[in-house]
């Protein structure tokens, strides 16, 4: 592919959206052409799948169904948007990709990485990003930063267990894919994290 494909990953509340915004400001200032998309979503069909997945009324959805819907939204995005843009030489940025499925559905929901890899290999034929930026901040620290988790709230606590499993999943993925996944320390100020992201992109000759 002529263009480069960069994905962003991280647990809830690590400041991923803010960092993507800061990166966009930088790319615009430097006149670097890019296309930003997100998962689940990014195409009309994938956005409809997103509404099904995130709709609170669908609480009966099985974990397997959820994982396959993410893979369906992904293959649509890949074929309709990502691949054509990469072929035309564009830099494509994607907010979440298959590592989210591995961390959330594979590790945290307990479906296992084998199942997630199987359905995604089938859907996207192992199509891998050139670089994945994992914003590293533990769920405890992320909650602390936004004012703290309510220790008396059973749901919030069980939520914490889930998010901790997601986090451990990401750390494991980063360990297994050191060439592709760059771990960005997101515990500093937003400016510090932004500078680390720019450095990583420059070091890999993405920008
Ligand atoms: P979103 O509101 O976009 O959250 P964020 O700003 O944290 O990216 O919702 C996406 C949610 O979907 C988020 O909780 C992570 C989850 N997700 C999965 O569980 N598996 C996946 O494969 C993807 C792409 C997302």
What would a concise description of this structure say?
This protein has helices at 16-29, 44-54, 63-87, 98-108, 113-124, 139-145, 154-176, 190-203, and strands at 5-10, 34-38, 91-95, 131-136, 181-185.
Topology:
Blueprint: E1 5-10, H1 16-29, E2 34-38, H2 44-54, H3 63-87, E3 91-95, H4 98-108, H5 113-124, E4 131-136, H6 139-145, H7 154-176, E5 181-185, H8 190-203
Helix pairs in contact: 1-8, 2-3, 3-5, 4-5, 4-7
Bound molecules: thymidine-5'-diphosphate.
Thymidine-5'-diphosphate is lined by residues 12, 17, 39-40, 70, 95-96, 100-101, 104-105.
User: What is the CATH topology descriptor?
Assistant: Rossmann fold
Count up the domains: 1
State the major sheet. 5 strands, parallel
Number of helices: 8
Q: What keyword list fits this structure?
A:
Rossmann fold, five-stranded parallel β-sheet, 207 residues, binds thymidine-5'-diphosphate, alpha/beta, 13% strand
């Amino acid at each position: 592919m002529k263009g480069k494909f960069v994905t962003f990953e991280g647990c809830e509340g690590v400041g991923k959206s803010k960092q993507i915004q800061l990166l966009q400001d930088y790319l615009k200032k430097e006149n670097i052409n890019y296309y930003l998309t997100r998962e689940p979503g990014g195409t009309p069909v994938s956005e409809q799948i997103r509404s099904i997945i995130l709709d609170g009324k669908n609480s009966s959805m099985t974990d397997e169904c959820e994982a396959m819907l993410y893979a369906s939204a992904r293959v649509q995005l890949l074929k309709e948007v990502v691949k054509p843009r990469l072929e035309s030489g564009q830099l494509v940025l994607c907010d979440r990709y298959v590592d989210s499925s591995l961390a959330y559905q594979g590790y945290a929901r307990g479906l296992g990485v084998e199942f997630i890899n199987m359905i995604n290999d089938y859907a996207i034929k192992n199509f891998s990003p050139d670089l994945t930026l994992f914003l590293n901040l533990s769920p405890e620290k992320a909650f602390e930063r936004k004012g703290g988790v309510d220790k008396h709230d059973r749901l919030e606590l069980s939520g914490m267990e889930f998010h901790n499993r997601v986090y451990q999943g990401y750390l494991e993925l980063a360990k297994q894919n050191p060439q592709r996944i760059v771990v960005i320390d997101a515990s500093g100020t937003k400016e510090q994290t932004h500078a680390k992201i720019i450095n990583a992109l420059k070091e890999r000759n993405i920008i």
